[in-house]
Amino acid sequence: MSEVALVNNPNVGLDKTPKSGPYVNELTTLNLGPTHPATHGIFQNILTMDGETIVDAEQTVGYIHRAFEKIAERRPFYQITTLTDRMNYCSAPINNMGWHMTVEKLLGIEVPKRAQYIRVIMMELARLADHIICNSILAVDTGALTGFLYVYQWREFIYEIYEELCGARLTTNMGRFGGMERDLSPVAIEKIKKLLAELPAALKEFESMVVRNRIFMDRTQNVGAISAERALNYGFTGPNLRAAGVDYDVRSLNPYSSYEDFDFEIPVGTKGDTYDRFLVREEEMWQSLRIIQQAMDNLPTGPYHADAPHYYLPPKQEVYRNMEALIYHFKIVMGEIDAPVGEVYHSVEGGNGELGFYLVSDGGRTPYRLKFRRPGYIYYQAFPEMIKGSTLSDAIVTMSSMNVIAGELDT
Amino acid sequence: MENVSNQQIIEALQGQFGEEAIYGIAESHGILQVTTEVEHIVPMLHFLYQHPVLKFQFLTDLGGIHFPEAKGQELGVIYHLHSLENNVRLWIKIYVPIEKPEVPTVTGLFATANWMEREAFDFYGIIFEGHPNLIRILNVEDMDYHPMRKEYPLEDATRHDKIDELFGR
């Protein structure tokens, strides 16, 4: 009998049962993060691994906690908008608008239709940017860098549209209580039209490269799956919940800012795995484009902000010429205007899910209590359950597809 | 989708827990809020979860709040419930004294309450009895106070450019 045959014989060979001594089965502790390039943000996961299989994960969050809720208790309402920018910085306009709508609810300001439509356009652009980031980087994490380069320039282009409206790119501080700070400029309209005309081609190119790609499918299907029941119990919202098969979308269930005027569909998945999350986000981008198209086609004429002199900054020319305007300008900038007593909860469909603002006002110039319901914070706690039993590379892809944003999580 | 009115929720709660168990009934922009006693909170959430019509099976948020003036019930916990089937929201509030801020955990019913309760513990020092891992979450572990309580001012007390009097407040 030759030596080769002896090795291939399954009955002859190494005994696989654990032994004492140097061969004992041992669990490995692996520290993933806090600053690991694959986690896209500052998250620490202490993984317990059996060979290449994850047995348990212990999460540490809070590395970039900036005490937003505490700071908000000392700031006039309009200064809190800049804090919301820094939560989910991939889709800052949605956070801004959500906060503005919360305060408008408290103050009872009616926003004109045109401002609502501009808000919808900006929010959907933000959703596009958010999903472009999440999906293209998910592709990068599975090894497909090219697709990322095709769509990422459109995220850059969306930032140019933001710049047209508010002057900023990432932390936008867009809009004011009562509407927008300025109307859509001709350049902005031109750019939005260009985006509507040309992004579909790039998106199609990206999809044709990734969606039916064998490697991508093998890397993402049945990876990091969560059932609809568990997802609801874990408080999932947004694309991650819809990927599990629950069609909860704040935009359609509790329409705000005239979302009831638009015709769009809510894509849902079936398995709640990484592939489904990817596809749901992909389809949501198409729906966002549809909504923007409808909003541009039916953009109402009229004022782009409400007549709310106590809260809406007067035009600068007026401030220099008109005494009332100067008084209001000063009072608003100094945060001297008291808000009514009340308790308000308002939520919008953020890039990652239901972004809620629970505001308690005691009638002062600042909120008494402001609680942000950050979707990322709430669903990230399911991460250990989702990756248990999978490999390290699957965990990276799962985390990437959940779109956990450190800024939102840690406030 | 059935239409569930806020009155129906109140009646269901009063029928189960008695008239005295819920008070502070108010409505804010269509959202019903009720206040209850600490001992009722877990049975109440279970009751609402299993109710065949109401089905409050989604815990949107849970947060602490501090009212230093309200003696004996300084700290509060607000449960934001959402019945996705009926699209009705409900806030349930409970208040506990700051000397003994003990609240039973609801992690047995909602897995999502885990981090929400840790956050409320971290910022307000509310102790959730029975919580599987009640440690700080966003702040550093060796912090020895609960920063969202109202006695901790945000501004540096040594600054003289932000005195309220100077601004006529």
Automatic annotation (TrEMBL), chain A:
Assigned protein family: Belongs to the complex I 49 kDa subunit family.
What are the entry keywords?
Answer: Cell membrane, Membrane, NAD, Quinone, Translocase, Transport
Is Cell membrane there in the keyword field?
yes
Which protein, by its recorded name, is this? NADH-quinone oxidoreductase subunit D
Q: Tell me the gene name.
A: nuoD
Q: Which reaction is the catalytic activity of this chain? A: a quinone + NADH + 5 H(+)(in) = a quinol + NAD(+) + 4 H(+)(out)
> Tell me, how does this one assemble?
NDH-1 is composed of 14 different subunits. Subunits NuoB, C, D, E, F, and G constitute the peripheral sector of the complex.
Stretches assigned to the NADH-quinone oxidoreductase subunit D domain: 141-410
Query: InterPro entries this protein is in?
Result: NADH_Q_OxRdtase_suD (IPR001135), NADH_UbQ_OxRdtase_49kDa_CS (IPR014029), NDH1_su_D/H (IPR022885), NiFe-Hase_large (IPR029014)
Q: What is the species of this protein?
A: Aquirufa aurantiipilula
Membrane-topology annotation of the record: Peripheral membrane protein
UniProt main location, coarse:
membrane
Purpose:
NDH-1 shuttles electrons from NADH, via FMN and iron-sulfur (Fe-S) centers, to quinones in the respiratory chain. The immediate electron acceptor for the enzyme in this species is believed to be ubiquinone. Couples the redox reaction to proton translocation (for every two electrons transferred, four hydrogen ions are translocated across the cytoplasmic membrane), and thus conserves the redox energy in a proton gradient.
Any idea where this protein resides? Cell membrane
